[in-house]
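Side project, low priority. Logging it here so it doesn't get lost.
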Amino acid sequence: MSLRHPAPPAPATGPHSPRRKVTLVYIDAGGGHRASSAALQAAIHRHGLPWDVRPVHLRDMIDPRGTFFGRLGVDPEVLYNQRLARGWTFGLAKELKLLQALIRWAHAPMSRQLQAHWLAEEPDMVVSLIPNFNRVLRESLAASLPGVPYVTLLTDLADLPPHFWIEPGGRQHVICGTPRAVLQARAAGHPAHRIHATSGMMIRPEFYDRPAIDRAAQRKALGLDPDLPTGIVLFGGHGSRAMIDIARRLQDRQLILACGHNQKLARELASMPSAKPHHVLGFSTRMAHYMQLADYMIGKPGPGALSEAVQMSLPSVVVRNRSTLPQERYNTDWLREHDLGLVCSSFRHVEPAVRHLLADLERFQSATRRVRNRSVFEVPGILERIMVSAFAVDGAAWQPSRIREPGDGLVTKPS
């Protein structure tokens, strides 16, 4: 099926006139927040909303001159991503509490800096795609630009309360991708009309654009056997040292090993012997294509990777233990609940897990096809309705934008 572009939008009225400015707040820790920001920006454009969408890194808002982070001598995001790549994640739950305490301690100076940013930029809506900082972001916006809507878009399947994604109080909107997150937003005291449920995590539109391909020919082009079951090993944009152990334990399985930006890891994996073909992949913007060549996925239980795998009909083998990121532990429950793969206590058990998965592959793949995630097509409509409400447009005169989804006709999103 192919992804068709929307028709040109109708003459701008209501929230479309004057041209509205929308700020998307992201960070680079882990890579998923930037990817979600890019996916949302593309989705807003595809939805036909003529907004001025501005993705902004949180660091550029709270430390625009680089003074604070320059004194540190190290970029915390770089350090965090290096730890992910090396598998040094044990103890991050305690470090998260320390980070949250530091954010509370620095609330006043950060708020002053953010207020200056809002006054300079004057956005008409702010959408946060990051955890931990939502209280100071929302309160600073309310103090400087009262009435401008603030939206928290969870990029995790569930919150990790307190003070992670969903902060209590204040006039704000929360977009939740699972029923569990909706319940958490209610428990935090948010009224129903400011809690917006979607059908899953937001992933890039290209994961819905699945052109017919010759999988056998494409596998041969990568040096793979076209007739062997193929797993794709994914650990985000920076890979993980765990992939070495996985490749060693699965020498008799055909694999695509995606290392992202980790060139050292890619070289090490490429030099390892294996009984069956292993294709080592560096950073690629065509991950949907490579996932289309696979039959299952192995990796960490990140919300983005799991959602992309499900969309591509790939059941997953993941691990949950004390080293699993605390915000990703619920994802393994979600995986089990929907029968979308297997959860191990360690990658030491990856070989029997893969054997079990392949023995019942059709059942697991059927479960992935029962999941209907259209979040990337739903969120722009939600934001549009929030904008309409914020600027007191006459609802009777306003008509929702029209959007084309893959494989469907022209769809009108209900108000």
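Brief comment: DSSP finds 17 helices and 14 strands in the chain.
Revisit when time allows.
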